[in-house]
Write a structure and sequence with these properties.
The complex is a heterodimer of chains A (about 110) and B (about 120). Chain A is an all-beta fold. Helices cover about 0% and strands about 55% of the residues of chain A. The chains are: A mainly beta (about 110), B mainly beta (about 120). The interface of A and B includes residues 42, 45 and 101 of A.
Chain lengths: ~110, ~120
């Protein structure tokens, strides 16, 4: 079956540095991607999305890059803050509105 | 706050029992999705309802069932519970099928513990 995977299960960064979280997807027909943030004890929170007809999308301190050639997605967080510590999931959509999620990357921000 | 509510927050029960989890979608959303998240696992899609009708089915066990009511709230029923059913159960809602992306917004989840 199709899978959404993450390159690194954990990531530690110094406060103020930039963070990059990567995600590989396997279905070239996926046309929409979302990054979610999940803090301990809470539900996933929408961060940013990107359609397959785009390469890059910027939000507030976050940027998502999509490389369809190698089926790779990344989330960049600028000036990482302690409040950014969480698990980050990428999700891809390719069948109706059904999403497939990766297992997540745990980001720890070191003060 | 996503606008999606789930009750209860925590549920502790015994093997063989049956429980019902409840979800109220965001105002205006017609689609409801149920997910299971086990320890160290990603979100596993269980089932989707749109305006009262089942829309898509994922890895949902036969012991599990769901429905969406006319007021659009949804319930997930888990029966003959096993230890392995212990997990976080999330509900998400979206506006509904339409052209283009239809972002899902998640509730806070129900933590189920089966003893």
């Amino acid at each position: 079956g199709e899978s959404v995977g993450l390159h690194l299960p954990t990531l530690s960064v110094q406060e103020g540095d930039n963070s990059i979280i990567n995600c590989a997807y396997s279905n070239s027909a996926s046309d929409y991607f979302i990054w979610y943030k999940q803090e301990s004890g809470k539900g996933p929170q929408f961060i940013i999305d990107i359609r397959s007809n785009m390469d890059k999308r910027q939000g507030q301190r976050v940027t998502v890059l999509l490389n369809k050639t190698v089926k790779h997605l990344s989330l960049q967080i600028a000036a990482t803050q302690p409040g950014d510590s969480a698990v980050y999931f990428c999700a891809e959509k390719y069948t109706g509105n059904q999403f497939y999620f990766g297992t997540g990357t745990s980001l720890t921000v070191i003060p | 706050d996503s606008g999606v509510t789930q009750t209860p927050k925590h549920l502790i029960t015994a093997t063989g029992q049956r429980v019902t989890l409840r979800c109220s979608p965001r105002s205006g959303d017609l689609s409801v999705y149920w997910y299971q998240q086990s320890l160290d696992q990603g979100l596993q899609f269980l089932i989707q309802y749109y305006n009262g009708e089942e829309r898509a089915k994922g890895n949902i066990l036969e012991r599990f069932s769901a429905q969406q009511f006319p007021d659009l709230h949804s319930e997930l029923n888990l029966s003959s519970l096993e230890l392995g059913d212990s997990a976080l159960y999330f509900c998400a809602s979206s506006v509904g099928p339409r052209t283009g992306p239809d972002t899902q917004y998640f509730g806070p989840g129900t933590r189920l513990t089966v003893l």
